[in-house]
Amino acid sequence: MLQSKLFTKTVKELPKDEISFNAQTLIRAGFIDKVTAGVYTFLPLGLKVHNKICDIIREEMNAIGGQEILMPALTPKNVWQTTDRWDSFDALFKLAGVDKKEYALGATHEEIITPLVKKYIFSYKELPVYIYQIQTKFRNELRAKAGLIRGREFSMKDLYSFHKDEEDLDKYYEIAKKAYFKIYDRCGLSDKTYLTFATGGAFSKYSHEFQTLTSAGEDTIYICDDCKIAINEEIIKEQETCPKCGGKKFRKEKAVEVGNIFKLGARFSKPFGLQFINEGGKKQDVIMGCYGMGPSRVMATIVEVHHDGRGIIWPEEIAPFVASLLKIKNQKSPAARRAAGQAKIKNIDEISNKIYTDLQAHGVEVLYDDRENISAGEKFADADLIGCPYRIVVSEKTLAKDSVEVKRRDSEKCEFVKLKEIINYF
Ligand code: ATP
Ligand code: MG
After folding, report:
1. Which CATH superfamily is domain 321-424 in?
2. Cα 83 to middle of ligand 1, angstroms
3. Is the CB of 292 under 6 A from ligand 1?
4. pTM of the entire structure?
5. For the chain, how far is it from start to end, CA to CA, in angstroms?
């Protein structure tokens, strides 16, 4: 993409009404725009990153048998009454229709998916099934000061699994845990992400959270370093020892919950009457699990974890572009250039344009800073702020060596790469 055509611009000033690092930085770099507390627009750069995270999640959910659907955000009151959650789910956004009926904006979708599955599943032969969506959720969060970490409107992947018995759910639950870690690995978070025992909710003693260490985290967890697992502060009183090794040595850390999985049992299948005919011809409740993850929160967490004083450092698989290509002209005065013997250097425009086209033809996504009348310093600062994994510079200095200069965003080392080699570099 040509940076001269990008309708958004980076901004130097910190946004006044944001205190979280992820929101400040994503706004300054032109990834998101704030509409009101907890509500953001995803701009071209931000949407690219968000889509890449969603694609990774989609691939890993499909790999464990997930079938993707899309449920509505507008949900009728009666389904929430069926499960007794109309009054007890305190973050529900409620609204009235012209039909005088009441609705809630979907905060989670057990109330929609359970009656849906009831229309299609009748026999043990049709189980298990795994169904998911990636969709916008709404929660009337009290505090919305953590940027994309806590939106009032935010994206969630929610997968629901349906089983004939607990044993089958237990097996799938372990498979889902592994898939979650694959996702965090691809998003550059796995080193800092801990499987964390948390309150169970409906059915099992525990639920499992995936908590990523960062000072921006709103949760406190206790880590057992030997086992690489953790316990959420909210249950540390009832679970004083490591559930795996029995140890009592914990390290206290701040963390963000980037995922949460639950065994639901028959909590939702019972009120909706979701049953199946078992091998013996008898009716039985379907056993359910649910598996949530917030792509927008994952995006914010990546920014909190991967940055330096100059800006974001995106992991390669989810970066908006693999490389920033910087065309740097007029570094020196013509006299200085002549003195340096560089007068014969070919047109910088022409060469930069060709590198851009060649890299794109090679499948390398490039953000080409082709802007005129922008200083070299500003171009370097913008590239660092936006945070693509590689920076390629074309200037008189590099062309004097028939080369471009390549630098990884996460390293201070620069190297010269010959013009004819640059295609093979990526
Ligand atoms: P929290 O305890 O942080 O409020 P939760 O336990 O209520 O989250 P879940 O219902 O488990 O959240 O939602 C599944 C996932 O959706 C979470 O693990 C998180 O990644 C994401 N998520 C939840 N609430 C938000 C929010 N307000 N903004 C962004 N992402 C969210
Ligand atoms: Mg949770």
Report:
1. Anticodon-binding domain (3.40.50.800)
2. 20
3. yes
4. 0.96
5. 17
